[in-house]
Design a protein that fits this description.
Helices cover about 30% and strands about 10% of the residues. It has about 200 residues and is α/β, with parallel strands linked by helices. Helix 2 crosses helix 3. The protein is globular and about 40 Å long. It has a four-stranded mixed sheet with strand order 1-4-2-3, covered by helices on one side. Helix 1 links the parallel strand 2 and strand 3. The structure holds 2-acetamido-2-deoxy-beta-D-glucopyranose (NAG). 2-acetamido-2-deoxy-beta-D-glucopyranose binds next to loops. One of its GO terms (biological process) is lipid catabolic process. Belongs to the 'GDSL' lipolytic enzyme family.
């Protein structure tokens, strides 16, 4: 793997896919939201002052452009393949200026390399989007979409969306052996998951 760097090389990965609401197939397009770490970051960290970036070769050598994209991969990553299965274009990184207007309706990728379940995971990377911040961006995203298509349509879009959450590896690789007196990840994962789910079904 070209992407075997310290923040991307895991023995333990926590990954779940949550399908919310029932997908009727009648909708024009199902939205897709991605939260997590370098396994699913598709470029957010390129907009941040951090060492956890995939912005130089050999990253991207097998991507259609042959250039680094911010994905911690030689080519596509898992969210790209899921988007392809949905028949959709890849979601844009939330920090991309291109994520605007109609593009917002495809969904968004909030992931940031180096983060974990715990806030003190990845402290050495300084400027990364920790999971609580990814959820704040998700709230902001919903407000932006609401301004575009209205509250009800936004609620339908979010409730019918596919959500991918991939994090946990860095709590071992970039925390357990580095940060003294860290919190227990098992105690906080439930809070984070329930917050994500309650956000995505919140009423307007
Ligand atoms: C992380 O920090 C945020 C903001 O200070 C806080 O709201 C959240 O509860 C913290 N999460 C954990 C798991 O400690």
């Amino acid at each position: 793997m070209a992407s075997c760097m310290v923040f991307a090389c895991y023995n333990v990965v926590f990954g779940i896919v949550v399908a919310l609401g029932s997908f009727t197939g009648a909708e024009a397009q199902r939205a897709f939201f991605v939260f997590g770490d370098s396994l699913v970051d598709n470029g957010n960290n390129n907009y941040l002052a951090t060492a956890a970036r995939a912005d130089s070769p050999p990253y991207g050598i097998d991507y259609p452009s042959g250039r680094p994209t911010g994905r911690f991969s030689n080519g596509y990553n898992i969210p790209d393949f899921i988007s392809q299965e949905l028949g959709a274009e890849s979601t844009l990184p939330y920090l991309s200026p291109q994520l605007d207007g109609e593009k917002l309706l495809v969904g968004a990728n909030f992931a940031s390399a180096g983060i974990g379940i715990l806030n003190d995971t990845g402290i050495q990377f300084i400027n990364i989007i920790r999971i609580y911040r990814q959820l704040e961006y998700f709230e902001e995203y919903q407000q932006r979409v609401s301004a575009l298509i209205g509250d009800e349509a936004t609620e339908r879009l979010v409730n019918g969306a596919l959500i991918l959450i991939t994090l946990g590896g860095n709590d071992f690789v970039n925390n357990y052996y580095l940060v003294p007196f860290s919190q227990d990840p098992a105690n906080t994962i439930y809070q984070i998951m329930s917050r994500t789910l309650s956000l995505s079904i919140r009423r307007f």
